[in-house]
Design brief:
mainly beta; three-stranded antiparallel sheet; 1 helix; 8 strands; 3% helix
Length: 116
């Protein structure tokens, strides 16, 4: 999932999909997607074989802007996921530091807390 650049300031929870720009998921059951080890890369806006675009529901993913920082999260089945920030430099995604956005709380009650 790739989130809106304002995720760190406006997210209401660690998984605030209201701020997601692009999300993909397996097209069918969890075991039907291409294994992570077989994916050379994931191209923003292009669903890999065995996956489908969830957000936006209609149309293409919005373009990413040069120099803007975006938060991403990758969840997997039977493999470690990852999350972090990237920005676009010279038309390429480059890993970068981002603002620490940490949440604490239980259930549906989330609050921003200092990151450790």
């Amino acid at each position: 999932m790739v989130y809106n650049p304002q995720f760190s300031q406006k997210a209401k929870s660690p998984w605030d999909e209201d701020l997601a720009l692009w999300k993909i998921d397996v097209a069918e059951g969890r075991s039907t997607g291409t294994p992570v080890g077989s994916l050379d890369r994931i191209v923003y806006g292009v669903s890999p074989e065995g996956y489908k675009q969830i957000k936006p529901q209609i149309g293409s993913a919005p373009p990413l802007k040069q120099g803007t920082k975006y938060f991403y999260e990758v969840t997997t089945t039977n493999a470690s996921g990852t999350a972090g920030y990237f920005q676009i430099k010279d038309s390429r995604a480059v890993s970068t530091d981002g603002p620490d956005t940490c949440f604490g709380g239980e259930g549906k009650k989330w609050a921003r807390v200092p990151c450790r």
